[in-house]
What we know:
The complex is a heterodimer.
Chain A: E1 5-7, E2 10-13, E3 19-24, E4 31-37, E5 44-50, E6 53-57, E7 65-68, E8 75-79, E9 88-95, E10 105-106, E11 110-114
Parallel strand pairs in A: 2-11
Antiparallel strand pairs in A: 1-3, 3-8, 4-5, 4-9, 5-6, 7-8, 9-10, 9-11
Chain B: E1 4-6, E2 11-14, E3 19-25, E4 32-38, E5 45-50, E6 55-57, E7 60-65, E8 70-75, E9 84-91, E10 100-101, E11 105-110
Parallel strand pairs in B: 2-11
Antiparallel strand pairs in B: 1-3, 3-8, 4-5, 4-9, 6-7, 7-8, 9-10, 9-11
Amino acid sequence: DTGVSQDPRHKITKRGQNVTFRCDPISEHNRLYWYRQTLGQGPEFLTYFQNEAQLEKSRLLSDRFSAERPKGSFSTLEIQRTEQGDSAMYLCASSSGQENTGELFFGEGSRLTVL
Amino acid sequence: RKEVEQDPGPFNVPEGATVAFNCTYSNSASQSFFWYRQDCRKEPKLLMSVYSSGNEDGRFTAQLNRASQYISLLIRDSKLSDSATYLCAVNIGGGSYIPTFGRGTSLIVHP
């Protein structure tokens, strides 16, 4: 399968714990995005990488959230001291710089439940 | 005002019906427009891009109205399998490669 893969698919954690999600984009894509989606809402932008550089972060991304893409390939999104409001689907997407800007390929998401 | 707005619906239509959704955007500098489809508990998948001249893909037609700042999606001869949430996405361009999504419009096609 050469699509975007995310791990884990589901994570249940207690409030205050740290969680980390991993995203492996399509191999030739240099742009990688993290979005968050809650029930009844569209995906909300969190952060964006071009290669290994984190170029933009949403103000939604509090200091408890950190994302990395150390070698310009896979990315991790860590949430520290989780809160119940962090419960959501965390979607990773990738795109190639050669494509029409805005066409994203999404992974199946990592669903986080904070108890 | 939200950057991208959609009527959440649901739009409940019989098979064979024609249904249309609109999506308004607030930034007049927006340059790229897209419709995504999202099935229940699945990831969004690109349905079609929206070009200035409008474009059609089978039963689906997308149009852009820059003057009124909205895009539309028309689905003809609705199928049960068209039941999904339709998300519009807008990219302001100009070096920004970050699409902003609407909340989606839910479509339910019934027999």
